[in-house]
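Q: Convert this sequence to structure tokens.
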Amino acid sequence: MSGLASDVETAVALAFREQWGQIVATLIGLTGDWDLAEECAQDAFGTALERWPRDGIPHRPGAWLTTTARNRAIDRLRREAVGAAKLREAALLAPTDQDHPADDEAATSGVRDDRLRLMFTCCHPALALESRVALTLRTLAGLTTAEIARAFLVPEQTMSKRLTRAKSKIRLAGIPYRVPPAHRLPERTAGILGVLYLLFNEGYSATAGADLIRHGLCQEAIRLTRLLVALLPDEPEARGLLALMLLHDARRASRVDGTGDLVLLEDQDRTRWDRDEIADGVRELEAALRHNERGPYQVQAAIAACHATAASAAGTDWARIAELYGQLVRLVPSAVVELNRAVAVAMADGAAAGLVLVDALAESGALTGYHLLPATRADLLRRLGRRDEAAGAYREALALASTDAERRYLTRRLGEVAAEAP
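A:
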């Protein structure tokens, strides 16, 4: 691959990560058509891959892409039978010198960030909570249907249908593309928090691909969550979520080694952790807890704080972490939370105690297809010296893992237990 072609692909990939949501938001505002907005945004990125090698990378790639996508959308509308009506609607939606709806909305709602505005729009209470989260991740974050399906632990086809139904409901129910007034914002907070949580998770531990960590998604999730905290300063779960993100992000530099391989928490170089970010996260957590309205994000942040503030892996208060996971299970009954609790119990009370909980989860079938279940079971079996069983569990996890970094880690572990076998 030539240097220019490589530079173009890098520039397009960067623009996608940073500009996708903004471009789609602009097109939805222009056309009112979600599918058309996504299609034209995709076309713009495809056009960039064709033209930039010849014409050079624009000084402002985002502006170039937005203009190209907008022109594509207008051309499409003109060619359609209903184009005239939609163009009239678009003209009404577009701001003019005499009419600044975006500024009016900001004054009414307090929302001044375009992407956050569209998040609130996606999270209309008429949509089911899972549909709100999924639609926003697809529309604004640019996550693929497969990535969102993995985040929800459902088949890709199921998620595709869910997204289609959500878009249809917006169209058929006439859900308006606008920001609600400030007193209506809290009813959409749960959906927004869910979106930001999954957005950060996808960045912190990608569901597929060569890279385990997608820094851009992590930073965008943190940025938007800070905006939400400023918008809703008395919402403890917003602060709890921000604390959770900061405490996890502080360990980012130590989670993979120089070759991109996964480094477990117990093996991470704690001198590389961002102490300022940890202190920021702890302050946000303390501010959230002062409201005495404990929710799941605050509990998860408290767990993250136990890890982030421990001087060493051996000095981690695993009993406290297991207790916190018990609280989290009561707040959010989830097989994934149960699995994390099993790990904490194993660290606090021994691998055998944790394995009992993991085996019960395996028998329930609740986490079928989730690679961290057999990976966790394999690790506990290895610690108990049951190497043949551990090898089988590592092979099962390896078949399910979807990132290169995780596959390399599991392959290495499998080789270790195989070499240790008598």
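Confidence is low (pLDDT under 50) at residues 91-110, 207-212.
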